[in-house]
Amino acid sequence: MAKKFLSNSPILSNNSTSHIRVAKPSSEFYSVFSKAEVLEIIHALETRWEIPLKYAYKGQGAKIWHEFYQKFVSPKWYRKSSVEIDLLRNNFAYIYSNIQKCEQVNVIDVGAGNSYPAKDFVAKLNQLNKINKYIALDISEGLLTVSRKNFTTWFPKIDYINQQMDIENSCIPANFSGNPKIILHLGVTMGNHHNRNQVLKNFRNSMDENDFLIFTNEIGSNSQWDGIARGGCKYHAKEIYRSIKNSIGLKSQDCQLVRKYDLATDSVVANIKFLHNYNIDFSFQGIDKSIEISKGKEITIWRHHKYEMPKLIQELEGAGLELVHYTTNKYSSHIMAICQVANN
Ligand SMILES: C[S@@+](CC[C@H](N)C(=O)[O-])C[C@H]1O[C@@H](n2cnc3c(N)ncnc32)[C@H](O)[C@@H]1O
């Protein structure tokens, strides 16, 4: 007699001792992602057991990031500034000395989030009448809404544009050229990308001779991680884990959150470890795919790669970029890297 398959309930496989549970992503999950994005998630699961972190900022993920930022990153009475804001402030003189000769610049904030880290920087450029437009680009429509609301409140007179885009898959749209560009990529986002080389190449291919790419990242050795989760690795990863369990339909008792050093990517990662055999069944706009995940398997949902300086310079050179200036914070844990198109 044929077995009746019930979703989200234990079903017996051929081996009667091993149960396979079926998870079906919710309708809300499918409302957040395009068909191409669902296909990329499936591909990442099949080829490297990962749900790319960039997708964790979409849908409910926008609220998760915004709340994490407000609670743990934004300046408070007991925490007057943030690493990003301090680094931008400390590098302002260098940046300004290089744009003095041009009339006005476009600030293009890629992965803008809520735009908060760029606020003081934009205010200074504005006082000096050096800013033409502020352009927020982000994979997350929800965060672009937050960015617009914030920025237009702070700077009602500065021209503001935003656009959804994925810097891992495309360059900065050409229509934002014209004035020299200051491209910001803040919040140590560089170290979160799966394909940093492609991101750097996309930045390089978006830049002209007088443009600057300014990004922050953690520096140091990933493998020397002390095993203690802090900041995004602790709080953001925990919320992403909760959200993925809900949207994909995993039972809490069937999985756990594991953080560790991953040799293959030389990164600290947060993984969902499966305590049961599972099938994740994707069914959307003609996509009909079941991913089998066996008990004990882990799926990466968060990652961060720290740079060691020689490796950073090597990756930049490989993408046709030159590190023209950098500073670190007082603990030497974070770098602000300022890059231009390489001469050769
Ligand atoms: C770690 S947050 C940093 C936000 C902000 N720059 C800050 O410093 O607070 C990463 C931001 O980059 C966006 N993001 C992540 N991957 C992206 C990608 N591939 N393309 C465009 N935006 C991306 C996220 O939606 C989020 O707004």
UniProtKB/TrEMBL annotation:
It comes from Anabaenopsis circularis NIES-21. Keywords: Methyltransferase, Transferase. GO terms for molecular function: methyltransferase activity. This is Histidine-specific methyltransferase SAM-dependent domain-containing protein. GO terms for biological process: methylation. InterPro entries: EgtD_Methyltrsf_superfamily, MeTrfase_dom, MeTrfase_EgtD-like, SAM-dependent_MTases_sf. Pfam families: Methyltransf_33 (PF10017). Gene3D superfamilies: Vaccinia Virus protein VP39. PANTHER family: ERGOTHIONEINE BIOSYNTHESIS PROTEIN 1. Residues 40-338 form the Histidine-specific methyltransferase SAM-dependent domain.
